[in-house]
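Subject: complex prediction, re-run

Hi both,

The earlier run crashed halfway through, so I resubmitted it with identical inputs.
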Amino acid sequence: MVLGSFARDKWQMRFRNDLLSFGIVLGMHPEEAQKSLRAINELQKEKKEKKNWITEGIKIVSK
Amino acid sequence: MSSLREKKRYIVYEVKAEPRLNFKEVKQELEKKMLQFLGELGYGKAGVVILNEWQSNKGMIRTNTKSVENVKTALALVENINDKKVLVRTIGISGMLNKAKNKFFKGG
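This time it finished cleanly. Structure:
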């Protein structure tokens, strides 16, 4: 699960601690909520890597 | 008996808005939003009190220990105060009023 503010302007952004509290209120364990906040960074990393991905086990390292 | 006394926490919050806001407007809107989110029963159980401390768009809320996360979430859900876009965030939490003032009001 990914937790984030998904803001479209600066007024919709939310601070990390507030999102953590939101996750806890939803019923997540504090560690789960922390992981969910970090998940978006991992997703972005994965997306970046996928650009050079060809198939399982093969990716372009440099052109 | 001290063991039966309600354990409290002081949440220091900050309201970010383009024009400076009046404390009365902020207090009204926060009470309304917390009531909406927590419900009548939840609001009563949380024992929420919005203190009259207000300095450079920062204020304090007293609540009981078990409802801290709920109150923080309710604060994060505030979008507008009197049709002005705002951003409410929690700066910190403390168990003692003076410590909360010294650490978050004066320091932050």
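Chain A is about 50% helix and 10% strand.

- K.
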